[in-house]
Each structure stands twice: as structure tokens, then as C-alpha cells.
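check these C-alpha cells.
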Amino acid sequence: MVTEHRAEHDDHPDHRALAGGTTRAGVFGISDGLVTNVSLIIGFASSGVDASFVRLAGIASAVAGAVSMAAGEWVSVKSQNDLVKREMALELRELKRNASAETSELAGIYRSHGMSSRQAEASAAEVMQDPERAVMVHAREEFGLDPAHLPNPLNVAAVSLISFLLGAFLPVLPWLGGSGNGARLASVVIGVVAAAVLGAMIARQSERSWVMGSARQVGITVLAVAITYLIGSLVGVNVS
């Protein structure tokens, strides 16, 4: 059964990518980096500081945010995997100590899936003949987990780091050689266009309307920019 399950994943690589967590990390990384930095840059720019301060703030925010997000993803995924392994160990111990009760429990799960009582009991008994295979089945049926395809913490952290940097550096580009209203407007335009493209890509992947997906992502970005622009304009800075 484990072999069959692995074969199913091999036939559908997209499912494996989603289970691995890298798709989620990539999407959140780009989105967070883009929204965070375009709003921060506009907030600084509207306060009246020199372009060099805006540029420094944008680069520092991109690097710090990417490192922080990658570290958070690594800790989160690593902790989740450790919990899964702990549950697996407890389940394996329970299978060996109380095989009869676990067999009945598994048969009950199979019956809830539509099997007849006789077929459910026969299937559960067959699975329970191999404790290692049985614990994999129990994990999937009871906890909704696939122990054979746990996400790799380093992979998720790396994807998160790179995607955040990508999203965060886009609105910084106009400030590398520009300043003033031109650079400010360019940052907003880049942020809006990138948000629209990202929203459309996410929507298409989930088979939803790309127009609605783009509108939602652009709305979030514009709202964040408007808030930080207002704060920057009201607060301002006094640099001596």
C-alpha cells in the first residue's frame, strides 16, 4: 500500500509539491515581500527623507524580512515534522501493544468510507499484519498525514528566503538610480503590476477567476501602500 501511494504521488507531481510545502512558502514569500517593501518604501518616501534613506530602508527590510521568514518557516516545518514523528512512534507502540483494538479502529474507518463490514475487517486485518505499513495507514486515516512525504524544512526555508527577496526587491529597483516622485510612482506601479500578476497566477493554479485573484491581491497592496503613505506624510522625519 505504501508503494502504491508513492506511485500515485509520482504520477501527480503537483500533489507532491503542494504536500511538500514549497508552493505555499513561495506564494507567501513573494506576496509578503512585495506588500511589505512597497508599503515601507512609500511610507519612507512620503516622509520626505532623501532617496538614500529610502534605498537603505528597502534593502535592509528585504534582507531582514527574508531571513526572518526563512527562519520562521524552518522552525515551523521542523517542529511539525517532529510532532508527526512523535505521533508515529506513539501509534506504532499502540499498534504493538493493543493490535486488536487498533484493528477494530481501522476497520471502523474503512466502514465510514463505504466498505462493507466484512471487507473493512478483512482489509484492516491485512494491513495490520505489517506494523510498519499499518502505522503509515493509521497516520493517513486518523491524522490526515502522509509520513512518506513530509516537507523538508531546509527546502521550504530556502524557497521562502528566495521568494521573499524577489518580491521585496522589485519596488526597490527604481530607487537604485532614481529619486523623488518618479521613483515613488515607479515603485507603486511595479508593486501593483506584480501584485496583479501574482494574484492571477494564484487564481489560475486554484482554478478560480484570474480577474478576481488579481483584484484581491492589488487591493491588499494598494491598501497597505495608502496606510503607510498617510503615516509617513503625517509623521515625517527630522534628520539633522
The two ends are 70 Å apart (CA to CA). DSSP finds ten helices and no strands in the chain. The mean pLDDT is 81. The CA atoms of residues 41 and 58 lie 6 Å apart.
